[in-house]
C-alpha cells in the first residue's frame, strides 16, 4: 500500500508534528517500510516504480492521517445501559445496574452478540483502534466479544471477570478454585481462537481481570498473580477509584487496595489499573517502580469519585498513562470527549492550586497536545503494543484514521467545520488541528486502518 498526504502525530508528551506531503509505504504485513517527504530521492524512486497492481491512496490538502485512538478502560456489557443511573454512588450503582446488565448478557448469547457488534461499530466510528475491555464472568459471553473484535479488525484486549465474592448472590463464580480454572480456560481458548492466523493478524488477546478488591478474595488475587506470571499475561482492574470503594476495602481488609494488589503480584509492567484517583504522589511513584499503567477516565471520575486524578503528578513521576471512556461509568464512547473532559479537569485543578502565584510553581493544567499524545502514543505504550506503535515511523504498524477538514469537491468544511472553505486547507497548521480537536466529530473521520487493513462497520447477522 502506498499513501501520500499529510500526517499528524505526537512522538512525545506535549509535542505535535505535522508532516506535509509525505509518502508512506506498507508491506504485506501492514508494517511501514518507507516514510519520507514525497519529494525525497527515495520517495521519487518509489513513485517511479509504481505499477498498476499497487494500491495507491493520495489524499486532499484538507485532510490528514492520525494514529488511531486507544481506549484503556471500557466495560463491554455495560454498553447496554450507558447513560443510566449516574446519580448513584459507585457501590450502589454496581448493584443496581452493572451486575444486573452483565448477568443479563451472560444469560442471552444472542443479545450479547448484538450489543457487542454495535459496540465495536461505535468504536470504529469514534476512531478507536485498540481497546482494553472488561467483560462478564461467563466464558462463552467473553468469547463472543473476542470473536466480534477479531472479525471487525480492531485490537481487542478482552478480560473475563474474576469474582469469587459478590454483593449480588446470583452473579458470582462458584468458588475460588472455579474462578481460577475459568480464567485459565478463557486464556487458552482465546489464544487458540487466533493461533491459526499469522502473528500480525492476531488482534485479540486475553487479559486477567479481577474486577476489584471487593469482589475478589486474597486467595483468588494470589492465584491470578501466579497465573499472570506463569503465562506472561496482561492484568486489568480498578484501583483507588471512589470514596465508598476505598472505605470498604479499608474496613473489610484492613489495608489499602494498592498494597493488596502489590503483595499478590498484580502490579506488573503488563498491568493497567483504572482511575487511581485516591493515590497520592508517593503511591504514584511506587506504581512507576512497578511499571504499572493507569487508565485515566475523567468523565466517570466526575460521577463516581470525590477527587480528580492527579494526572500531572503521575506524569511527573514517569507513570505510563492513557485514556479510558469507562462505559458505562462514563456515558460517551468517544475518546475525543475523554480528551476534552480531561483538559477541563486539569484546568480546574490548576485553578484551585494554593501555590499558583508562587514563582516557579508547577502548573497542573494539561493542554490538548498532551492529551492527543495520551490518546494515541501514550495509550499504545500503556497497552504494550508494538514498540513503534502510536506514531508514523518505519517499522510501525499502519494504524491510522483519516481526518477530513475540508471537502475538495464542495470546497467547504466537513461537519461542524462547514464555516471553513478550501482556502483554509492550503496549509494544515497547528491551529487547524486544534480546531478539529475541540469541535470536530465523527463526520470528519473518513476511514480507518489497522495493521494496514482498511476496516469498517461490522454486521451482526451471525
UniProtKB/TrEMBL annotation:
Reported cofactor(s): Zn(2+)
Spell out the coiled coil positions from the record. none
Q: Does the keyword Protease apply?
A: no
Keyword presence, Hydrolase: yes
Q: Which SUPFAM superfamilies match?
A: Metallo-dependent hydrolases
Q: Which InterPro entries match?
A: Amidohydro-rel, Metal-dep_hydrolase_composite, Metal_Hydrolase, Metallo-dep_hydrolases
> Pfam families from the xrefs?
Amidohydro_1
Which Gene3D superfamilies is this protein grouped with?
Metal-dependent hydrolases, Urease, subunit C, domain 1
Q: What cellular component GO annotations does this protein have? A: cytosol
Keyword terms: Hydrolase, Metal-binding, Zinc
Species name: Dendrothele bispora (strain CBS 962.96)
Question: An example of a Gene Ontology BP annotation on this entry?
Answer: guanine metabolic process
Q: Which GO terms describe its molecular function?
A: guanine deaminase activity; zinc ion binding
| Superkingdom field | Eukaryota
What's the protein called, per UniProt? Metallo-dependent hydrolase
Residue ranges of domain Amidohydrolase-related in the record = 66-428
Amino acid at each position: 500500500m502506498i499513501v501520500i498526504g499529510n500526517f499528524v502525530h505526537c512522538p512525545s508528551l506535549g509535542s505535535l508534528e505535522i508532516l506535509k506531503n509525505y509518502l508512506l509505504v506498507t508491506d504485506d504485513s501492514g508494517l511501514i517500510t518507507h516514510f519520507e517527504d514525497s519529494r525525497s530521492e527515495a520517495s521519487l524512486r518509489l513513485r517511479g516504480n509504481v505499477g498498476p497492481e499497487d494500491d495507491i491512496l493520495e489524499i486532499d490538502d484538507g485532510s490528514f492521517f492520525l494514529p488511531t485512538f486507544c481506549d484503556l478502560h471500557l466495560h463491554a456489557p455495560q454498553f447496554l445501559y450507558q447513560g443510566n443511573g449516574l446519580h448513584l454512588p459507585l457501590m450502589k450503582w454496581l448493584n443496581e445496574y452493572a451486575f444486573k446488565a452483565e448477568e443479563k448478557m451472560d444469560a442471552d448469547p444472542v443479545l450479547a452478540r448484538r450489543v457487542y457488534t454495535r459496540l465495536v461499530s461505535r468504536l470504529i466510528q469514534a476512531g478507536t483502534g485498540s481497546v482494553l475491555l472488561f467483560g462478564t464472568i461467563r466464558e462463552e459471553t467473553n468469547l463472543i466479544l473476542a470473536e466480534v473484535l477479531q472479525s471487525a479488525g480492531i485490537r481487542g484486549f478482552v478480560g473475563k471477570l474474576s469474582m469469587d465474592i459478590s454483593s449480588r448472590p446470583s452473579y458470582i463464580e462458584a468458588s475460588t478454585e472455579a474462578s481460577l480454572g475459568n480464567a485459565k480456560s478463557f486464556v487458552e481458548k482465546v489464544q487458540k481462537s487466533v493461533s491459526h492466523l499469522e502473528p500480525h493478524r492476531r488482534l485479540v488477546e486475553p487479559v486477567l481481570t479481577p474486577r476489584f478488591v471487593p469482589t475478589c478474595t486474597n486467595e483468588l488475587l494470589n492465584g491470578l498473580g501466579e497465573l499472570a506470571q506463569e503465562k506472561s499475561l496482561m492484568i486489568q482492574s480498578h484501583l483507588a477509584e471512589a470514596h465508598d470503594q476505598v472505605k470498604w476495602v479499608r474496613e473489610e481488609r484492613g489495608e489499602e487496595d494498592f498494597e493488596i494488589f502489590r503483595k499478590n503480584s498484580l502490579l506488573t509492567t503488563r498491568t493497567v489499573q483504572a482511575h487511581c484517583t485516591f493515590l497520592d504522589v508517593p503511591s504514584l511513584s511506587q506504581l512507576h517502580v512497578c511499571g504499572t499503567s493507569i487508565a485515566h477516565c475523567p468523565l466517570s471520575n466526575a460521577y463516581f469519585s470525590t477527587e480528580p486524578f492527579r494526572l500531572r503528578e503521575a506524569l511527573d513521576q514517569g507513570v505510563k498513562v492513557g485514556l479510558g471512556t469507562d462505559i458505562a461509568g462514563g456515558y460517551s464512547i468517544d475518546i475525543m470527549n475523554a480528551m476534552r473532559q480531561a483538559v477541563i479537569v486539569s484546568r480546574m485543578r490548576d485553578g484551585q492550586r494554593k501555590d499558583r502565584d508562587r514563582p516557579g510553581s508547577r502548573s497542573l493544567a494539561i493542554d490538548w497536545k498532551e492529551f492527543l499524545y495520551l490518546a494515541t502514543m501514550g495509550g499504545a505504550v500503556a497497552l504494550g503494543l508494538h514498540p513503534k506503535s502510536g506514531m508514523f515511523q518505519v517499522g510501525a504498524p499502519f494504524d491510522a484514521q483519516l481526518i477530513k477538514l475540508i471537502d475538495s469537491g464542495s470546497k467547504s468544511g466537513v461537519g461542524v467545520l462547514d464555516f471553513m472553505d478550501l482556502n483554509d486547507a492550503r496549509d494544515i497548521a497547528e491551529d487547524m488541528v486544534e480546531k478539529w480537536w475541540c469541535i470536530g466529530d465523527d463526520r470528519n473521520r473518513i476511514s480507518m486502518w489497522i495493521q494496514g487493513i482498511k476496516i469498517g462497520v461490522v454486521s451482526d447477522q451471525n
